[in-house]
Amino acid sequence: MKNKGFSLIELIVVIAIIAVLVGVIAPQFLGYTKRAKESVAKN
Question: How confident is the model over 14-29, as pLDDT tens digits?
Answer without folding.
Answer: 999 999 999 999 888 8
